[in-house]
Design brief:
The structure holds 2 protein chains of 2 kinds. Chain A is an alpha+beta fold. Chain A has a 5-stranded mixed sheet with strand order 2-1-5-3-4. Chain B is built from 13 helices and 8 strands. In chain B, the strands form 2 sheets. In chain B, strands 2-1-3-4 form a 4-stranded parallel sheet, sandwiched between helices. In chain B, α1 packs across α12, α4 packs across α5 and α6 packs across α8. The longest helix of chain B has 17 residues. The radius of gyration of chain B is 19 Å and the shape is globular. Classes of the chains: A alpha+beta, B alpha/beta. The interface between A and B is large, with 81 and 74 residues.
Amino acid sequence: MPEYTLRIRRFDPESGEPPYWRDYKVELAPERSVLEAILTAKGQEDGSIAIRCSCRAAICGSCGVRINGRSALACNTKVGEAQETARDGVIVIEPMANMPVVKDLVTDMESVHWKKIRRVTPWLIPAEEPPADREYTVPAEAMLDVTQTMACIQCGVCMSACLSLEADPEFIGPAPLAKAYRFVGDPRDGMTEERLRDLAEDPHGLYDCTHCFSCVEVCPKDVAPMNQIMRLRRRAAEDFGIKDRNNGYGHAVAFTRLIEKYGTLHEAQLLPRTFGDGSLVKGQTEPGAVKQLLENLPTALRGLKSGKVTPKKAFFHPRLPDQKEIKRIFREIERHGERIELNLYIVGEGGDEEDAATTAAIAAAEGRQDS
Amino acid sequence: MIKVAYWPGCVARGFAPELHGAVAKVAPLLDIELVELDRANCCGAGVIAEHNQELADTLNARTFALAQRVEGAAGMMNICSTCQGAQSECRERLDASASYREHINKHLAPEGLSYRKDDEWWNKNLLWLVVEEIGLETLRSKVVRPLTGLKVAPFYGCYIVRPTRRLGFDRYPDRDKYLSMVIEALGAEPVEYAGSHKCCGFPIITMNRRTSLRQAGRHLADAIEAGADCLVTPCPLCHLNLDMQQPEAAKFVGHELGVPVLHFPQLLGLALGLSPKELGMGKHVVSTREIAKRVESLPVAAAA
């Protein structure tokens, strides 16, 4: 049986000593999990290693750690695979990031993860009185859209990997925002707009995600929290026109309308339009927008000085030769009134499969176009 | 000689014109023939998809269709991590469902265009193209000015490294190591530091300036602490936050910065014997003068 070296980051707050590294050698078949490797080290060499675990089958979400720098469930990672990404043949195991360490590999889930989960009001607030004599049922198709977020097991692995959270500890974070979509997308919930407005206006909310894909990459349940954040943004801006103070709405509108007009991005107009909820005039006249523009003035001047940006480029942007075709595409899609979203979590990747909701939306959109 | 349909993107012709210029200079030295897609549109950078997925998918299907029409092209090349990621995301959806693809193609039909699903057809960032289609051996043979002694910190940009499942890592598992491999092939020394695969923060520069510039600033400071003479990136959007915003980023991290950031083709060009000036290195916010001087003092050999 192959032998593996685990380098575990140890920390005992009661000792008064800083964290330190200790190596353990374990013999194990490569298809066994990193969790089993840790438990083997604990059982055979050092019973004081602290790790939280229960089901050992990626269901309970207890054993989140970082393996060779990557956030993952220890039970869901094969030790042989961990060896492949190990440097110098040593598998490095650390507690999850972006949260306090209680002891060794056990992190405090309460102070970051659960606190932020509670922040998004993680329960249904029904639009109407639930029926007294039966269950509150909805058509199965209406729940398809939120099944992906319902797969979350609250393991905190995405919180550990989140690069925005790393730079801004106040960011609500991927798991809570995915949870928020669980209720925003639920047809029975009656607080959709309030939820969206609350998250959009929070300076550390909906628009604090940098779109870095870290949570998508590490989630053991394919919840793809970032995709849920994008859905929340879509609902907030498109369905409710929420003009948030963080420029989230302005940025999406400015960007989209500039491409409709020019085909490629007129960067010099992106900033003022973003600050003006999409409007160039508003972005250059409203006190709030002007203040933000002035904040960006030093950067703009440096751009001019370096020769990257020329006055001509700032005021003039060429349209694409076929811009009328781009405009037609915008018109066709934005006017048919259907939201056609292909969710690969439902249809599967590359399998040429169909899902009923998308097919129906396409049929409705095409029917409307023809008439 | 490899012929490619070339999508330069918006920023490389906008606020980072030195990138587009550098590609034009470097391509012939690598025997890449560029057929520029001058009628193609913005990839949407994930922002249009955030607004309307069908729209983003249609716009990128249009670009792919234009690229697939280029006679004799081996595939499509981009020079921006964000274009790579945004386009790969749309393509994944287009390839996943025949009826969806057919619907999107209806929007393209009036222009006589159609996106064709073809697993062998590719869209690659110049970085991928250099390693996978040209090869490091060939690249090494073309180096006339090995960048000896230059310590270069790689910065990938999120969109070109995550999610691995969408970005072809099953077939090319080393795609998250390519920058270091190329840096080495060019005779320079890759610098390891915490931020190489992290986010530059650019996408939220207008939404949360503090978080955005903290990210950029931290990675730059980490690279400096690790001894980097410069950074190199295949993403012009990262370049905007790492170079153009660097003096501002310094204010958010309590660390003196001032480290030059090169575009990927600029680093290639230096090793292929081009001058820093030809590569537009004067058009950076953080001065590249010091490393330009160092590189120009390195011996230039005749091409092998």
